[in-house]
Amino acid sequence: MFTFLSLILLAHAISPASSQEKNIFLLAGQSNMSGRGGVTNGTWDGFVPPGCGPNPSVLRLAANLTWVPAAEPLHKDIDVNVTAGVGPGMSFANALLAYDPGLGVVGLVPCAIGGTKISQWVRGSFLYDQLVRRAGAAARGGGKIQAMLWYQGESDTVDEEDAESYKGRLEKFFEDLRSDLQSPSLPIIQVAIASAQGPFIEKVREAQLRLDLANVKCVDAKGLELGRDHLHLTTSAEAQLGGMLAGSFLRTRPRPIKNNAPSSPPPSSTLPSSANPRILPPTTVVAQLIRPTVNESGEQRLEPGVLRGFGALLDRIWAATAAPRVLCDAAHEHVAEACRREHVAEAFVGNHLSEFLELNVF
Length: 362
Ligand SMILES: *[C@@H]1O[C@H](CO)[C@@H](O)[C@H](O)[C@H]1NC(C)=O
Ligand SMILES: *[C@@H]1O[C@H](CO)[C@@H](O)[C@H](O)[C@H]1NC(C)=O
Ligand SMILES: *[C@@H]1O[C@H](CO)[C@@H](O)[C@H](O)[C@H]1NC(C)=O
Ligand SMILES: *[C@@H]1O[C@H](CO)[C@@H](O)[C@H](O)[C@H]1NC(C)=O
Ligand SMILES: *[C@@H]1O[C@H](CO)[C@@H](O)[C@H](O)[C@H]1NC(C)=O
Description:
Blueprint: H1 2-14, E1 22-29, H2 31-34, E2 39-40, E3 43-44, E4 58-61, E5 67-69, H3 89-99, E6 105-110, H4 126-140, E7 143-151, H5 160-180, E8 188-192, H6 201-209, E9 216-220, H7 235-251, H8 282-289, E10 293-294, E11 300-301, H9 304-320, H10 325-342, H11 353-359
Parallel strand pairs: 1-6, 1-7, 4-6, 7-8, 8-9
Antiparallel strand pairs: 2-3, 4-5, 10-11
The site of one 2-acetamido-2-deoxy-beta-D-glucopyranose has 3 residues, from loops.
C-alpha cells in the first residue's frame, strides 16, 4: 500500500508540466506585446535578462496548438512577418511564480501581431478568430483562462476617426471576447500607451485610462524606456512591464497569495538592512509620499511616478513588518482614489522594491 501511494506521488511529481492544469494567460495586441526588445535592423540580439529566462513551470502555446517550454521570443511563430524579440510575457510569468510559488503551471498564449489597429480585432476578423481559437485550444488541454494581457492602440493614434472610435471599439472587443470565451468577468489588464506614431495619442490614452468596464485594469507605459528606433520598448522596459502587469494581476486576487500559507512576513534577514521601514500611521505615510507638485497653472497635481512608488512601498511595508493588513488596505484605497481623481492608471507595481528604494522616504 505504501509503495503504491509512493508510486502515485512519484508519478505526479514527474508528470510533465504540459499535462497539468494550467493558469492560462492570453497575450494580445500589437508590437510592444509581441515584443521587439533587442531587435535592431531586423535582427534580435538574443539577450535574455534574468527575469525573462525559461522556467520549468512556464509553457507557451505554439502556433501548432501544442504546449512547449516557453522561451523568448514568445511570438516567434505567431508574429511571423517580422523579427520578434523580448516582450513582457516571460517576465510576467516569472514574477507571478516568484510571488506565488504554489501557483502551479503558467500557460502563455501569444496572439499579438505588430502594427494592428483595434478595427482589425473586431469580432469575426482573422485576429479575433485566431485569439478565440487559440484560447479555446489552450483551455481544452486543462486549466483556466485567468486573464488577458492587452497592449495595443499605437496604430489608432494616426487617424482622428480611429482615435475617436477607440473607446467604443475597445469596449466592444472586450465584451465580445468575454462572451465568446464564456467568461463574463474575465480579468483584462491593458497597458496605456505612452507615445505613438500619430498625433491623437491623448484620445487613445484617455479611452484606455478611463475605460469603465468591471475587471479591466490598466498599467501605464509612461516612463518606460524606448529603444534606439524610438518606436519600441527596450528589453529592460519589457521586463519591467511584465512585472507591472503581474503586480496588477495579483491585486485582482485576494490575499494571502500563497497556497494555504499563513500571511506571515518573510524573515527580515532577507531584506536589505538599509531599508527597514518604520511603521507609520497611514496619514503620515500618505502625506510623505503623495507630495503634490505644482504644474504650470499653479494647480496641484500628483506625479504618476510617486503613486507607482507608493504602491510598491505598501507591499514592502507589509512584507517587512507586522503592519496590520488593514492599514495597508486603507492606504491602497487612498492611492486608488488619488489615481481616479488624477486620471492616472492605477499604478500598483507589485514587488518593485527598487522604486521604493529610489523614493528614499524613510
Ligand atoms: C542599422 O541600419 C542603419 C541604416 O542602414 C545603419 O546606419 C545602422 O548602423 C544599423 N545598425 C546596426 C546596429 O546594425
Ligand atoms: C509544434 O510546434 C513546436 C514548436 O515549434 C514543435 O516543437 C513541435 O514539434 C510541433 N508539434 C507538432 C505535432 O507539429
Ligand atoms: C504575413 O504576410 C503574408 C503575406 O503578405 C500575409 O498573408 C499574412 O497574413 C501575414 N501574417 C501575419 C501574421 O501578419
Ligand atoms: C511601443 O510602446 C511605446 C510606449 O507605449 C509607444 O511609445 C510606441 O509608440 C509603441 N510602439 C509601437 C510601434 O507601437
Ligand atoms: C494642472 O493640474 C490640474 C489638476 O490636476 C489640471 O486640471 C490642469 O489641466 C493642469 N494644467 C496643466 C497646464 O497641466
